[in-house]
Amino acid sequence: MPDSVELITYADRLGGDLPGLLDVLTGPLAGLFGGVHILPFYTPFDGADAGFDPRDHTEVDPRLGTWADVAAIAKDHDVMVDVIVNHVSSTSPTFLDWLAKGADSAYDGMFLTLDGAFPDGATEADLTRIYRPRPGLPFTPYTTGDGSKRLVWTTFTPQQIDIDIHHPATRDYLLRILDTLARAGVTQVRMDAVGYAVKTPGTTSFMTPETFVFIDEMAAWSRERGLEVLVEVHSYYQRQIEIAAAVDRVYDFALPPLILHALTAGDVEPLLAWMRIRPLNAVTVLDTHDGIGVIDVGADADDRSRPGLLAPEQIDQLVERMHDNSGGTSRLATGAAASNVDLYQVNSTFYDALGQDDDRYLAARALQFWAPGRPQVYYVGLLAGANDVDLLRRTSVGRDVNRHYYTREEIDSDLQRPVVRALFALIRLRNAHPAFDGEFEIDAAGSVLTATWTAGEEYARIDIDAASGEGTVMWTEDGAPRTSGLLALGG
Questions:
Q1: 419 Cα distance to chain centroid
Q2: CATH architecture assigned to 93-161
Q3: How far apart are CA 424 and CA 412, in angstroms?
Q4: Which one of 232, 242, 248, 470 is the catalytic residue?
């Protein structure tokens, strides 16, 4: 059978903790997902970057549960978790030990400094060439135990300390993580921020040849432990195709903006062109815990003569349409308007990016599910959630606009909405229909995209009119043809 649809969620925002998440998966979401990507539950899960700044992610934050709770979820679901290869928390015992003891620490050299990364010194050109997803240079001054100051490499936030992946202590740490995950029944790992993990003087230090060598090494370590590897990189689309050839799975981050462009501009040609060249071993998403990427469809940041999947003016227009569709709430959460600034994302729920248009939202999900690969649905998107402006205002973290904390009452209420019921029906069709294990075709006539899966006499087809947002599903059931509008699937 084809890959089942998987869920992406935080344990604390859809269930309250790991046992609560299991209760939701086996209760209102029973039978819906073959797997679940549980976003970081390590200590601390509520740090500077919502768990992506772990002190030591061989430890489950006791406020969320234990490794036994992870194993309980893994009993009936494929579980994916994050391996954060680029950095650790500034409160990590290993980093604090180095700060206190300096050269006398067993971890001396594990944490990247300006001098450590550029042993022969760095010119202005060297420093400005470094690629970073936020404004400014990636260095933060820290005071050591003897009172001296060191410039520590911090790609993301000052609380996320970059580690030297070549240092023996780092290698031991990463292997210990993989061993812990395998023992807990985890089957998939997502290599977070791996594109930034290798620093090479004189380069951008992002997705360099040395990075690919490290990805190969991490993938080999993971496979030795029975772990499938998903690589998380936002970058030029040709680079994603290259990455796909080296790993088990790669995100198709170009798909969300291309679907949004199609459904808001009525222009299907860029999406159709991408569907004909994209890697087939992709994990498809529309939304994740991060924002909606636009760098993935833009020109090559290293060589602007290499065009993107969308022209610069098309990207600008798409961003403005998303802001307009969200009633301006995404503008409050994006760029310099909020902290945790990203240069390449619009922070919004996908439902709001489409103006809460149920037809267009279900059309987007149908296009995602029909695209070859393994579909993942983010928990806010599963419930067709709107931008959480109250949470954004409380935290001033842009991404929080799409990281709502759901109560069980809210979940039960949203399950009654027609758009959510129809989405659940689409997921079940995608999970169970035998045609998705067959051959795929896609074509377009004007603004109408037609995508079809066929296996023998079985077929599953969608017709999506990008101009009107209307969509139709046609499929076989017990040997008989069936047809339905997307919203009508929910009954």
A1: 23
A2: Alpha-Beta Complex (3.90)
A3: 14
A4: 232
Residue 337: pLDDT band (50, 70, 90) is low
Q: Which fold has domain 437-490?
A: Glycosyl hydrolase fold (2.20.220)
What is the rounded CA–CA span in Å between residue 10 and residue 37?
8
Q: Is the pLDDT of residue 340 over 50?
A: no
Spatial contact of 88 and 54, defined as CB atoms under 8 Å apart: yes
Q: What are 240-261's pLDDT values in tens digits?
A: 898 888 788 999 999 999 999 9
Query: What band does 341 get if pLDDT is binned at 50, 70 and 90?
Result: very low
Asked if 3 is an active-site residue, the reply is no
For 307-323, how does the pLDDT look when each residue is reduced to its tens digit (9 = 90+)? 999 999 999 999 999 99
* Mean pLDDT estimate for the chain: 93
Domain boundaries, the chain: 6-84+167-435, 93-161, 437-490
**CATH number for the segment(s) 6-84+167-435:** 3.20.20.80
Q: Which of these is catalytic: 192, 296, 352, 463?
A: 192
Q: How far apart are CA 382 and CA 402, in angstroms?
A: 12
Report yes or no: 335 and 341 within 8 Å, Cβ to Cβ.
Answer: yes
The yes-or-no answer on residue 232 being catalytic is yes
β-strand partners of 460: 453, 475
The residue whose two tokens read 């699937």 is: 489
